[in-house]
Amino acid sequence: MDIKDLLEENPIIAAVKNEEQLNSALESSAKIIFVLFGDITSIASISEKIEESDKIGIIHIDLVEGFANKEIVIKYLKEKTKFHGIISTKPQIVKAAKKYNLLAIQRVFIFDTLSLNNVKNHMITECDALEVLPGVIPKVLGIISRETKKPLVSGGLIESKNEVIQALNSGATCVSTTKKEIWDM
């Protein structure tokens, strides 16, 4: 399935920071789970739990303890886990994920015009989608959506139904949130 279709069909993504949140996400109606925790010894079992629940797991590789920012880590994920993709702030990791046919989401932080221009001009060539943080900046979501033509995941600080609606109406394809109350919207 094309990532744009996948994200459009699943506009709420459960983002989990610990085992308790993971268990809640597995029981929720959210089809996609962003894993924001783990270490080299636990990620394979985390990915198996997600796969067994018929959900799509995408791991934020920068947050995994024990991993370096090297292509071999992507090869390990592809061969030894059930994750469907990765999130990273590192363009070289995103590029490596594409090489190994994993979904690749580039996470970007927008805090001024310079960072916005950097995203528009330099950071989007290899990724399948962008995750824009903080996700509560509708003007920026609209600009990035128009300029990049990439699916956008709006993440960070999204805590209410109104913020979800605002992000989606501003150009986001979907939102990621750790607020489990939103996962079943």
Descriptors:
185 residues; alpha/beta; TIM Barrel; eight-stranded parallel β-barrel; 9 helices; 8 strands; 21% strand; globular; GlpP; Glycerol uptake operon antiterminator regulator; Aldolase_TIM
Please characterize this protein's 3D structure.
With 185 residues, this protein is α/β, with parallel strands linked by helices. The chain has a single domain, classed as Aldolase class I (TIM Barrel, Alpha-Beta Barrel). It contains nine helices and eight strands. It has an eight-stranded parallel β-barrel with strand order 1-2-3-4-5-6-7-8, surrounded by seven helices. The model has no long low-confidence stretch (mean pLDDT 94).
Number of domains: 1
Q: Which geometry do the CA atoms define? A: globular
Termini separation: 23 Å
Question: How much beta, percentage-wise?
Answer: 15-25%
Give a count of the beta strands, DSSP E runs of length 2 or more: 8
H/E topology pattern = HEHEHEHEHEHEHEHEH
How would you sum up the major sheet? 8 strands, parallel, barrel
Helix content: 40-55%
> How would you classify the helix and strand content by structural class?
alpha/beta
Alpha carbon gyration radius: 15 Å
**CATH superfamily, called what?**
Aldolase class I
Mean pLDDT: 94
CATH top level?
Answer: Alpha Beta
CATH topology: TIM Barrel
**Biggest sheet, spatial arrangement of strands:** 1-2-3-4-5-6-7-8
CATH architectural group = Alpha-Beta Barrel
What count of helical segments does DSSP give? Answer: 9
Low-pLDDT segments, ≥5 res: none
